[in-house]
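in:
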């Protein structure tokens, strides 16, 4: 089977973000390959979602799985005289049965002591055998008794340019079963740029806490996309309406965002039962499909966290660039060791406290329009990510003092972020 090397490496890069290399199941660090003569399909999964990447190829390749890290390393080892193609061939080597000799030939065990014994069987499991005692090869006449069949082991031969590599593979049946979704109805159709911008704004708020799996995903409902980690919330609205609540794991959302860079057309979504969905993106080099499994855990009722704007007691607005530059400077000076103080009392001031005395090491008065009084300590990085993608002008309000949620939003109300202050 032959295919384009550059496109194949791009597909492997996508699969790398999907596999669970540090999980309890080693097979999840593998990628499944299968070629039918015209298309090559790569599959990777972390059990919560499955990625399928389809690209053109020449020749057939039986379904097999191989360690992703080793396959990617081989594809990067292109020689100076290499070509732009990669050739993959599947072969089978005789299986190995361990301990077979100890029972039937006790004299061998006494001869070789405690060394482990194993024999390599011929394909017909009869005839010549090779007996190994540790690393020593021993000539051994096979007994007349026929041994039980031993499965053969797959091997992949990968040719990249002028170099050839052999990789130990595994049977495709060891790969987790691919979920079969019964298509219920077509979901919304998203524009590539529209969906990518929304994902870029919402993704920073996805939780990375493995003990709170219901926060490790993005929730899509109605015309909104939202994510939260318990300390902040990002929301993008005015998207095509989706008929049922759908969840998108954070890792799958990152893959989807990356595939949208070269998307040729709109992105289609198929909705299934139990919050399952299938996302399909067609790019210049391949087609990527994400099958998302549903989750029983409910996403938090985020509407209850966002205070009503009519209840605001403190307001702030102005150019996004002014506040962004001031916050970035405060973050740089604090070096992540402390929060940033935001003081609104007729003027808008930002302070970063010194490490050894009470006097601030940095202070700046910002030319922003304000209303009301407020003094809070807030994470500057959260503020920067809340302002990123919000537009040239931002608005801010607080409805209940230092312990209340702080809301940043765009003038067209398409982007909104809630950031909790330090108490």
């Amino acid at each position: 089977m032959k295919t384009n090397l550059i496109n194949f490496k791009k597909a492997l890069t996508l699969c790398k973000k999907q596999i669970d290399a540090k999980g309890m199941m080693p097979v999840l660090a593998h990628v499944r390959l299968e070629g039918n003569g015209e298309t090559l399909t790569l599959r990777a999964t972390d059990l919560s979602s499955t990625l399928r990447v389809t690209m053109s190829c020449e020749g057939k390749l039986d379904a097999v799985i191989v360690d992703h890290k080793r396959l990617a390393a081989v594809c990067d080892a292109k020689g100076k005289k290499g070509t732009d193609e990669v050739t993959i061939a599947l072969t089978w080597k005789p299986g190995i049965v361990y301990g077979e000799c100890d029972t039937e030939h006790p004299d061998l065990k006494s001869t070789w002591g405690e060394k482990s014994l194993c024999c390599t069987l011929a394909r017909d499991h009869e005839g010549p055998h090779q007996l190994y005692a540790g690393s020593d090869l021993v000539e051994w006449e096979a007994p007349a008794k026929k041994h039980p069949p031993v499965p053969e082991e797959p091997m992949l031969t990968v040719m990249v340019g002028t170099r050839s590599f052999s990789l130990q593979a595994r049977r495709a049946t060891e790969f987790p079963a691919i979920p079969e979704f019964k298509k219920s109805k077509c979901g919304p159709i998203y524009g590539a740029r529209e969906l990518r911008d929304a994902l870029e704004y919402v993704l920073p708020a996805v939780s990375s806490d493995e003990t709170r799996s219901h926060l490790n995903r993005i929730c899509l409902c109605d015309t909104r996309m939202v994510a939260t980690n318990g300390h902040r919330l990002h929301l993008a609205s005015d998207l095509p309406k989706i008929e049922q609540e759908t969840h998108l794991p954070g890792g799958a959302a990152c893959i989807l965002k990356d595939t949208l860079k070269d998307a040729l057309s709109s992105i289609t979504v198929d909705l299934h039962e139990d919050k399952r969905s299938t996302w399909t993106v067609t790019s210049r080099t391949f087609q990527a499909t994400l099958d998302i499994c549903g989750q029983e855990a409910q996403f938090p009722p985020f509407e209850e966290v966002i205070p009503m704007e009519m209840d605001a007691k403190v307001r702030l607005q102005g150019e996004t660039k002014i506040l962004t530059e001031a916050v970035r400077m405060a973050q740089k000076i604090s070096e992540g060791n402390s929060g940033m103080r935001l003081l609104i009392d007729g003027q808008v001031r930002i302070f970063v406290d010194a490490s050894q005395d009470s006097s601030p090491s940095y202070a700046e008065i910002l030319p922003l329009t304000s209303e009301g009084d407020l003094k809070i300590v807030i994470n500057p990085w959260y503020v920067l990510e809340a302002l990123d993608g919000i537009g040239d002008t931002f608005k801010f309000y607080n409805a209940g003092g230092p312990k209340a949620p702080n809301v940043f939003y765009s003038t067209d109300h398409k982007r909104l972020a809630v950031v909790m202050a330090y108490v």
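note: The first strand starts at residue 2 and ends at 4.
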